[in-house]
Design brief:
The protein has 37 residues and is mostly loops. It contains no helices and no strands. The chain is elongated. The N and C termini lie far apart (48 Å). InterPro entries: MeTrfase_CN4_CS, SAM-dependent_MTases_sf.
Length: 37
């Protein structure tokens, strides 16, 4: 069985280009840049 893997780096605006039910894993980085310790 041949599989195809693809890494896409971008924000959620690019998700409109992905076909329905084509994403099996999503890794995110929440926008914490404005928070202070």
């Amino acid at each position: 069985m041949k599989t195809i893997h693809k890494i896409i780096i971008g924000d959620s605006r690019y998700m409109k280009e992905a076909p329905n039910e084509s994403v099996h894993l999503t890794i995110t980085s929440p926008p914490y840049w404005q928070l202070k310790d």
